[in-house]
Amino acid sequence: MRVLVVLLALSGCCLAQLSVKMPGDIVLGGLFPVHEKGEKSPCGAKVYNRGVQRLEAMMFAVDKINADKTLLPTIRLGVNILDTCSRDTYALNRSLEFIRGSLNNLDVSAFECNDRRPPRIRSNSTGPVFGVVGGSYSSVSLQVANLLRLFHIPQISPASTAKALSDKSRFDYFARTVPPDTFQAIALVDIVKSLNWSYVSTVYSEGSYGEYGIEVFHREAQERNVCIAAAEKVPSAADERVFETILGKLLKKQNAKGVVLFTRAEDARGLLNASKRMQTSLHWIASDGWGKQQKLVESLEEVAEGAITVELQSEHMPGFDEYMMSLTPDNNHRNPWFDEYWQDTFSCILPQYMNAEDVDQEICSMDLRLSEKVGYEQESKVQFVVDAVYAFAYALHNLHRDLCRPKDKVCPAMATYDGGDFYRNYLLNVAFKDLGNSEVKFDSQGDGLARYDILNYQKLPNTSGYHYKVVGKWFHSLELNIDELVWNRGSDVIPTSACSLPCAVGMIKMQQGDTCCWICDKCEDYEFVYDEFTCRDCGPGRWPYPDKLSCFDLPLQYMRWDSLFAIVPAAISCLGIILTMGVVILFIRNNDTPIVSTSLDYLDFSFAFLP
């Protein structure tokens, strides 16, 4: 315990970073990738649009719940939202704040007792940390889940899809509103097979998301006779040189035109950048790490054209777009990163951040607003963030109903209720329709429903713009509209990605090492193709069909006397008989001559009748 106290004290001293804090009777923690990874520091300078939207989605959901008179009517939810900077170790350190807050709120100092009444939460307390929404990256969730389970704090992720997180022996306080990558990997193999590709390369990110996902893809591909030409891992904090090296290895496999990506967004963009610099073109099939992100393909549209991506099927959250479009730096003071997001979105600088070096930069106008015209689009995981918050709210509502009186806020029994029991008895058992009228529930492993959209990145007709077009869906099986696919440079012809082309009729495969690579060898005229690797003799009286797939019995043919083929041999035979008889007669008539008489009569006559 002493070690823990020292650790928490150090974290409070050294990690005094910004956070979003809204007081409430019950506080939900939040973990979102607001900033990118830093090269020499934990956090980079770039602000992620998706991270800010997910953060705002959590506050949007909390605002709606707090305004709802039927859901947790006597309890006000608060938040404590932290930036993970897209880095698992940094997120783990930041999560210590949840632990410290949880311990503080379980201490008796958080309660007050007046007039011999039962203990109740102090009015100025932030309330116990009942659960955490996040993280986004699977690597972050894996680290944080291991910490939170030690203190019985449930966690719901709106984006982490690593298969390992379904293991309840290790992550028994973890749930998610999204499905595991097992289904996504199967969907990717289904896409590859539907294109008749048998030879592809793969690229995956270092960490649980990429490594677990590509493992399932490789296993499923092998079972379905899809060969892997090259499998390249993108290390953490990869630079331009690393991406160019990986791309060079992919290009060496000239027949593997298709490349399957199971990468984080920044790694997918790194590959596209390398492809643009090296002026090369490949055909991409990508997981939801790419999904339908516009920022990922910004200025890289030409090398991304034709990409097929998988994205979790999500519904537009009604009211969220209006909420986001109403926000400005002047009215959104609870989000400390919103100013950065604003400046990045509009490529300007707010007056309060100007200094002598910024005189040439454009100052942000007071009239600026988020809209579709400036590229605003609801991020695909917003629904799952909102669903995660509502899942906590419904579970807490049921817990309050069972333990507290109707007019109570957080009664002592609820404040001290074990997080493990809350997770198993309440959180996993919620089932409801969300704001978009989609069904939300968890299976026994705490996983969400597996539904995916299949997208194709296409150029808009008669314009210079590009967009993601939905060309199919996956729910247990693939439905793909092949005719709607558009490839590089607007081609509608499905490219070939095979080590060897199929053999012609009457030919078999002679394999050369890899099961997907072969040369074609022709069967003999009297042989048929027994299987794709073997020719077999049809046997006596049989002959192969033209397609060489089987044999048939040769029909018996009899010679007719009026046939030319009968008349000519018969005439020749008759002539031979006549000549033979003439020789015999000649021998008989000249039997007393010296030449004939000196010969062996029996032998001479035998020669006459021999053929």
Automatic annotation (TrEMBL):
Main location: membrane
A GO MF term: G protein-coupled receptor activity
Family label: Belongs to the G-protein coupled receptor 3 family.
Membrane topology: Multi-pass membrane protein
Residue ranges crossing the lipid bilayer per the database entry: 564-588
Domain GPCR family 3 nine cysteines: from-to ranges: 494-544
Entry function: G-protein coupled receptor for glutamate. Ligand binding causes a conformation change that triggers signaling via guanine nucleotide-binding proteins (G proteins) and modulates the activity of down-stream effectors.
Organism, as annotated: Cloeon dipterum
PANTHER family: METABOTROPIC GLUTAMATE RECEPTOR
Subcellular location per the Swiss-Prot or TrEMBL entry: Cell membrane
Receptor ligand binding region domain location: 54-458
Signal sequence bounds: 1-16
Protein name per the record: G-protein coupled receptors family 3 profile domain-containing protein
Keyword set, alphabetical order: Cell membrane, Disulfide bond, G-protein coupled receptor, Glycoprotein, Membrane, Receptor, Signal, Transducer, Transmembrane, Transmembrane helix
SUPFAM superfamilies, per the entry: Periplasmic binding protein-like I
GO CC annotation terms, alphabetical: plasma membrane
